């Protein structure tokens, strides 16, 4: 098993910081799962402007956009977005 280093973009950090503690904790635990098995959690993909494959995982009403950098052994969390149509509020 390869364990990747987890890097989180400032945009994602700001979004996480705005969440209630319980929701933030759930997402951070999920980030740890991504770090261990990033490809196992990919629900969809898109390409960025450089042609890199951006994986999208879903967790508790959120979409997590990340890039697995195999050469450097990094999982890079790029952004965290509420899933479309998910009008529920997170409870702390």
User: What's the level 1 CATH class?
Assistant: Alpha Beta
Physical arrangement of strands within the biggest beta sheet: 1-5-4-3-2
Number of helices: 2
- Percent helix, as a range, is 25-40%
In total, how many domains does the architecture comprise?
1
What is the string of helix and strand elements? EHHEEEE
* Average pLDDT: 90
Identify low-pLDDT runs: none
User: In CATH, what is the homologous superfamily?
Assistant: RelE-like
Q: Please give the number of β-strands.
A: 5
Keywords:
single chain, 92 residues, alpha+beta, YaeB-like fold, five-stranded mixed beta sheet, 2 helices, 35% strand, globular
Architecture overview:
- The chain is of the alpha+beta class and 92 residues long.
- It has one domain (5-82): YaeB-like fold, CATH 3.30.2310.20.
- 26% of the residues lie in helices and 35% in strands.
- The chain has helices spanning 10-17, 21-36; strands at 5-8, 44-47, 53-59, 62-69, 74-82.
- A five-stranded mixed beta sheet has the order 1-5-4-3-2.
Outline the secondary-structure elements.
Layout lengths: L4 E4 L1 H8 L3 H16 L7 E4 L5 E7 L2 E8 L4 E9 L10
Parallel strand pairs: 1-5
Antiparallel strand pairs: 2-3, 3-4, 4-5
Produce a short descriptive summary.
By secondary structure, this protein is an alpha+beta fold. The chain has 2 helices and 5 strands, in the order βααββββ. It has one domain: RelE-like (YaeB-like fold), CATH 3.30.2310.
